[in-house]
Design goal:
The chain has two domains: 3-109; 118-186. It starts with a helix and ends with a helix. The longest helix is centred in the last third of the chain and has 29 residues, at 158-186. It has 190 residues and is an all-alpha fold. The protein is built from nine helices and no strands. Helix 5 (59-69) runs antiparallel to helix 6 (73-88).
Length: 190
């Protein structure tokens, strides 16, 4: 389990628990709601917690297992808040509000860094995607358009220009594909 998998739906899970607890629902019912799906890895984790409880394990022991396995700091805070609420009967609403706000700020920071890393890339992709076919197409047409100028300037034959066109188009497609791969590897996953 990676930290990114844990954080993808964390804000939504935090807000769901917050709304349920604010409505007067108990922590067990809130965890049951999360386990029914819609929150990715978090739903899977709480489903396992409830399965353990159904088998006779204590809820706090099951939550402690999640605490040990968690990789994300924000998810760890949520689990510790739930654990503290179970063991000490603390008020979770204020803590959940702070955690959700902090998680949103972290997500926004990641998105800003991602956008900054991509600056200039869309323009470069548009330039390559538009100018490469245009310039290469004109170059491929040169032998047909200027065939009579063979005495004044040396113009490559049609086969050479078509080979140049095909090679240039292939290079443009490869460059665009590499840009796409670069964008996907920088994706913060939020």
């Amino acid at each position: 389990m990676s930290a990114q998998e844990e954080e993808i739906n964390l804000i939504y899970a935090l807000r769901a628990i917050q709304v349920l607890l604010d409505a007067g629902v108990g922590i067990e019912a809130a965890l049951s709601h999360l386990s029914k799906g819609g929150y990715g890895r978090i739903s899977d984790d709480f489903s396992k917690v409830l399965q353990g409880i159904d088998k006779g394990q204590r809820m706090e022991d099951e939550i402690r297992r999640l605490v040990i396995r968690s990789k994300s700091d924000d998810y760890l805070r949520l689990l510790n808040s739930i654990l503290n609420n179970i063991t000490s009967n603390t008020d979770m609403l204020g803590s959940l509000e702070q955690q959700a706000t902090r998680a949103e700020e972290n997500r926004n920071d990641k998105l800003k860094r991602y956008i900054e890393q991509l600056s200039g890339l869309p323009e470069m992709a548009l330039t390559i995607g538009f100018l490469a076919p245009l310039i290469l197409g004109l170059a491929a047409l040169a032998p047909f358009l200027m065939g009579g100028l063979g005495d004044i300037a040396s113009i490559p034959d049609q086969g050479t220009m078509l080979l140049l066109y095909n090679g240039g188009m292939l290079a443009a497609v490869v460059a665009l594909a590499l840009m796409l791969v670069g964008v996907k590897t920088k994706d913060p996953g939020v």
